[in-house]
Design brief:
Blueprint: H1 2-9, H2 13-36, E1 59-60, H3 62-65, H4 89-92, H5 98-101, E2 107-108, H6 110-113, E3 125-126, H7 136-140, E4 153-154, E5 170-171, H8 181-186, H9 194-199, E6 218-219, E7 228-229, H10 231-234, H11 257-264, H12 267-270, H13 277-280, E8 292-293, H14 303-310, H15 312-317, E9 322-323, H16 325-329, H17 350-357, H18 359-364, E10 369-370, H19 372-376, E11 387-388, H20 398-403, H21 408-414, E12 417-418, H22 420-423, E13 435-436, H23 446-453, E14 464-465, H24 467-470, E15 482-483, H25 495-498, H26 510-513, E16 525-526, H27 536-543, H28 545-552, E17 555-556, H29 558-561, H30 586-589, H31 597-601, E18 621-622, H32 634-637, H33 647-650
Antiparallel strand pairs: 1-3, 2-5, 4-6, 7-8, 9-11, 10-13, 12-15, 14-16, 17-18
Helix pairs in contact: 1-2, 27-28
């Protein structure tokens, strides 16, 4: 501040200006320090974030409760995004120990293993204990299908909550169980009781896997039997496959495992020659559970998982951008596991199989024009059955796919101008891939289709519209796919324009002669007559800038000054030099009276029709009066016409 005082005492504007700048700098710095103080201690964040609903919630995260925002957040960041000190679970683990949470156990809950703590917990506060985002079961159902927990008969522990049997983050037992499965069940079910033994046909089931026959959460059966049960297990006929309960080895099979299946199931019916390899090899238990399952047909796990354990190549396809939903969830919607390998285990006719789900395509079969691959019925000519790197499961880039049949497509890319959908491979931007009622398999009438993309052409309203555009005949001038001419024109200008407009002769305006009609005209519509993009004078001056420059510093000819170029010139062609509307001097005499006495007195007493005005006058502008050329012969400049034209004196012409 002492510097400021000294500057004010010093005379002169530069010093005063320096002092003022210093004042701005000093006060700005103070203000910045004030603003920064909001992050200097606890409790200051709430001044701005007082509207956070979590402040009113019952269960608060300790740092949030203590208003220690900087425990997790950095003080600076983008608006609306205050940066965290660490990302993902790394931040949480700065306070919460991974070992105590079970994150290093043999089995870890998927969200916890992936570091997605916030999938289940709110970082600030909630109405639920442990900062859960919602009530326990509801939270679990955001990932786990609720149907499996809401059938007619519920397992009693489920009514007390998921954590009756499961740990939250990680544990040493499969399924995140709190203890080994048999031990956990035995906590409630007394396996040595007479009732238990009678219900299980006197087989000693201590330490056995109850889930082989029972579903652990809910069932439509009062005994919580699995949804799909093997008939012998359901009927208590365990000895159909096992030794009796009194045998030394009661659970031993009475025969070879897979051979036992054929005692009941007819081999010729289930495994004819050429069957799926596991079926042909009799590996029944590779896919099926021998007792019960929560999946149809006794599948021992999710059907798609069973298939993908062998078909690893399909796993790669299902990780691509476009995935077939049945392949992603249930292979048996399209394939039968006991089918023939030569038909890829497909259920029935391939075409009918696809149309069974794709109902829109069923209706397309009756349209006037049907794309031949679709009509021939082999969907896989264009699509992949499982997954693809391209949308809608097409087998390759759309352009390459279409070009595999449409040979001319390669030529379109080599042309000088290709339609944007062609360049981007978006053939379906204009064409329906399966069928259409419009020629060319178009999605809409051709010219309506053009305007779906070229909406800027509909902006207006303009009072002057080119007739082909007004009648929506886009293809009168444009080709749909490609052209050797710019703008997809059907032919080069002026030939294209001359297909409707009379051809121009040898005295054509330079842009027209060069085929550049659009140098002066708009192709579709405009506000000015003749589809001009601007007033004629301004349009002319784009090329004739020298005339405009001369007019600005000289005396301008009235028509030129008023922008009436077309008063003297033709816009397209003329048989007269410089596109004049008439021969010289007739064009001048339309305005100037060449027989007037005053006119003659200035022009050697000659009538206007005998003169060539351009020899003495500039048609557009001149710094000299009467538009006389700026550079002139000395006698002419001095008005001494007789020096060269002696007859002028005899004829009484003025000097």
């Amino acid at each position: 501040m002492n510097t400021l005082v000294r500057a004010l005492r010093t005379s002169g504007l530069p010093s005063l200006l320096a002092a003022l700048l210093l004042l701005v700098f000093v006060t700005g710095a103070v203000a910045q320090i004030d603003r920064g103080q909001r992050f200097s201690g606890k409790g200051e964040c709430q001044r701005c974030h007082e509207d956070m609903p979590q402040f009113e919630m019952r269960h608060k995260h300790d740092p949030f409760s203590e208003e220690d925002c900087k425990a997790c957040h950095k003080p600076h960041g983008m608006v609306g995004v205050l940066r965290l000190k660490e990302s993902g679970s790394a931040l949480c683990l700065t306070c919460h120990e991974a070992v105590k949470l079970g994150l290093q156990a043999n089995h870890v809950h998927a969200p916890a293993a992936q570091g997605k703590c916030l999938d289940c917990h709110d970082p600030h506060a909630t109405g639920e204990k442990m900062l859960l985002r919602s009530e326990g079961a509801q939270l679990c159902w955001t990932c786990h299908d609720a149907d499996g927990f809401q059938r007619k008969h519920l397992h009693e522990p489920l009514e007390k909550g998921c954590f009756s049997c499961h740990v939250v983050h990680g544990g040493d037992f499969e399924g995140l169980l709190v203890s080994p499965q048999a031990e956990l069940c035995a906590n409630c079910h007394k396996t040595d009781s007479r009732n238990f033994k009678r219900a299980h046909f006197d087989y000693p089931l201590e330490n056995k896997n109850c889930a082989e026959c029972h579903t652990p959460h809910s069932s439509n059966d009062k005994n919580l039997m699995a949804l799909s049960m093997h008939d012998p297990a359901q009927e208590g006929d365990c000895e159909a496959c096992h030794n009796g309960p009194e045998d030394e080895f009661p659970f031993a099979l009475s025969g070879e495992a897979n051979a036992l299946c054929l005692d009941c199931h007819d081999r010729e019916e289930l495994a004819p020659e050429g069957s799926h390899d596991p079926v042909a090899e009799g590996a029944c238990l590779d896919c099926h559970s021998p007792h019960g399952s929560d999946f149809a047909n006794l599948m021992n796990r999710l059907p798609s998982r069973i298939c993908l354990d062998c078909h690893g190549d399909i796993v790669d396809e299902l990780n691509l951008v476009s995935r077939h939903e049945p392949a992603n969830h249930d292979c048996t919607l399209c394939h039968t596991a006991h089918g023939l390998s030569e038909s890829a285990l497909i259920i029935g006719d391939r075409r009918e199989l696809c149309l069974g789900c794709h109902e829109d395509q069923v209706a397309e079969q009756s349209m006037n024009l049907v794309h031949s691959p679709f009509e021939d019925g082999d969907c896989l000519d264009c699509h992949r059955p499982h997954g693809s790197s391209f949308e809608n499961l097409v087998g390759e880039h759309r352009f390459d796919l279409c070009a595999s049949c449409h040979d001319e497509a390669e030529d379109w890319l080599r042309d000088g101008s290709a339609h944007t959908p062609i360049k981007s491979g978006d053939c379906n931007g204009c064409h329906s891939p399966h069928a259409s009622n419009i020629q060319g398999l178009l999605k809409a009438e051709q010219n309506t289709l053009c305007l779906d993309c070229h909406v800027e052409q509909l902006e207006g309203p303009d009072s002057h519209v080119h007739s082909p555009f007004e009648e929506r005949e886009c293809t009168s001038c444009h080709l749909p796919h490609s052209s050797k001419e710019k703008g997809l024109l059907t032919e080069a200008m002026p030939g294209l324009c001359e297909s409707c407009h009379d051809p121009l002769g040898p005295g054509a305006h330079a842009p027209a002669a060069q085929g550049d009609c659009m140098a002066c005209h708009l192709p579709h519509h405009g506000k000015l007559a003749g589809l001009l993009p601007d007033r004629p004078d301004r349009l002319c001056f784009i090329c004739h800038a020298d005339i405009k420059e001369n007019m600005a510093k000289s005396i301008a000819h009235d028509p030129a000054a008023e922008g009436e170029c077309l008063l003297c010139h033709q816009p397209h062609e003329s048989e007269h030099p410089t596109l004049l509307t008439e021969s010289m001097p007739a064009v001048c005499l339309d305005c100037h009276d060449g027989d007037d006495r005053d006119f003659k007195s200035l022009h050697l007493n000659l009538a206007g029709e005998k003169l060539d005005c351009r020899k003495c006058h500039d048609a557009h502008a001149s710094p000299r009066p009467k538009l006389v050329h700026e550079l002139a012969h000395d006698p002419f400049s001095e008005g001494d016409c007789v020096a060269c034209h002696p007859e002028a004196d005899r004829e009484g012409g003025a000097r």
